[in-house]
Design brief:
The protein is 27% helix and 30% strand. The protein is built from 8 helices and 12 strands. The termini are far apart. It is of the alpha/beta class. 32% of the residues are buried. Strand 4, helix 6 and strand 5 form a beta-alpha-beta unit. The chain has helices spanning 5-11, 19-28, 45-50, 62-72, 77-82, 115-127, 144-150, 213-222, and strands spanning 33-37, 54-59, 83-87, 101-104, 134-140, 154-161, 173-181, 186-195, 198-204, 208-209, 225-231, 245-252. The radius of gyration is 19 Å and the shape is globular. It folds into 2 domains: 5-141 and 211-252, Vaccinia Virus protein VP39 (Rossmann fold); 144-208.
Length: 258
């Protein structure tokens, strides 16, 4: 997915429902300075900068960051000045700056596969926040029924039309098969995009960690945060077992490891 940032933007061009949430979260928690981890091509960081917040974006992939810079050129100078980009691993970074709010948007936390990576990211976020600063994570609430099916692996299913997916890809369709490994809470997949019999793109093992509410609370507590709020959607609705999202707001109450 991330090997071609342009295609990534095409795949996610309709994902806009969370943008107002992050603008409101920054305002609600009085976050003049914001750090987004796994910022990608700037889908969330650029609107935040456009809204007047001072934003830093961190991502591991140089190509994604370059795509963000290309998009930023079309923005007003004020927006460009409000956004700085850094290449780095969200589980192990040091920017020597302090922010009012650090966040990981739209399932990107799932790329933290091992427990060491999870703790590393939480501790890094802690180090870049003052006492009382917020660390916010937005991740899907997994469907246990689908995970049970995926424990045995389920066959390729059609994902829908992807007519703009790649040059020459008109009429293309996406297919994916998935498998869930219960012992590691790891969700692997194999996806293929085809136009007729012609394969446009094939990706194996886009591995993601599957999170559950109790695990998130333990990570926050272990790494120096108290869970201040948990929302279930982008309207700041109450989290329930049927919510589509888990949006945790952690407030720094001590230094990590203290």
């Amino acid at each position: 997915m991330y090997s071609n940032p342009y295609n990534y933007d095409l795949e996610n061009r309709d994902v806009v429902q969370d943008i107002p949430f992050w603008n409101e979260a920054a305002r609600r928690y009085e976050a003049g300075r914001v750090l987004e981890l796994a910022c990608g091509t700037g889908r969330l960081a650029i609107p935040l900068a456009r809204a007047g917040f001072s934003v830093a974006g961190l991502d591991l992939d140089a190509g994604m960051l370059e795509r963000c810079r290309v998009k930023l050129v079309t923005e007003k100078l004020g927006t460009q000045d409000n956004l700085t980009l850094h290449q780095g691993d969200m589980s192990n970074f040091e920017l020597n700056q302090c922010f009012d709010m650090v966040f990981i948007g739209f399932n990107s936390v799932e790329h933290l596969i091992s427990l060491q990576e999870e703790i590393g990211a939480f501790q890094c976020a802690n180090r870049h926040l003052p006492q009382g600063g917020r660390f916010i994570i937005d991740v899907r609430l997994s469907n246990l029924g689908l995970l049970a099916l995926a424990s045995d692996g389920y066959p390729a299913t059609k994902l829908g039309g992807l007519s703009e997916y790649a040059p020459g890809g008109f009429g293309a369709a996406g297919y994916a098969s998935r498998r869930y490994f219960q012992d590691d809470q790891y969700h692997g997949s194999h996806s293929k995009n085809k136009s007729g019999s012609h394969v446009l793109k094939e990706v194996s093992d886009d591995g993601r960690h599957v999170y559950f509410p109790r695990e998130m609370r333990l990570l926050y507590m272990y790494c120096g945060f108290e869970v201040e709020d948990v929302y279930g959607d982008y309207s700041f609705g109450e989290f329930t077992v049927s919510s589509p999202r888990m949006i945790f707001v952690g407030r720094k109450c001590r230094d990590a490891g203290a």
